[in-house]
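Narrative summary of target 7.
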Amino acid sequence: MSGIYASVFIITIFLICFSILASISINSVSQIKSVKEFVINNNLEKVRVDEALRVSSNRILVNLTNIGKSSIPVDDFELFDVIIVYKSNLTGDKVTKRLLFDPNRLNSSGWTIISVTSSNKEELLNIIDLDDFSYGLWDPGETMCLEIWVDENFSNTLPVYVLISLPRGERALFSV
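Modeled conformation, tokenized:
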């Protein structure tokens, strides 16, 4: 008789533990799903590539429009990730580089902003100081013209791929 009680007791303990674990798992999955939905639905910071041109054998100009709901301060520009992938015209090797924001063009590879417009006119709200980038905001609806350069020539026949990622994770990937 005591064996039956012991078996029932063990099965009861097992069922209690199993229901606790199941409840924890369901709550965790629910929390993960809500975080995932937040990341997917984060419309605060979005960008669109309007145009990208190769202007020389090692330079690209890109028109990038802020189509999100928030302004981006100039202090965040150095947090942008600009990654370029191309085939070297000199060596034929595939080259991948992360380019740094270089407003004074001091490095052999980098990127900077050469203009900011709103509806194809000079920006009027939260103007970005293009001389030393000490103040200003990239507001929704404004388009920045970025200049991207590297220290060697791209292949003439293959595309150049560029990924621009903003501090909150929004990305633009394009090729020229």
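Helices lie at 2-40.
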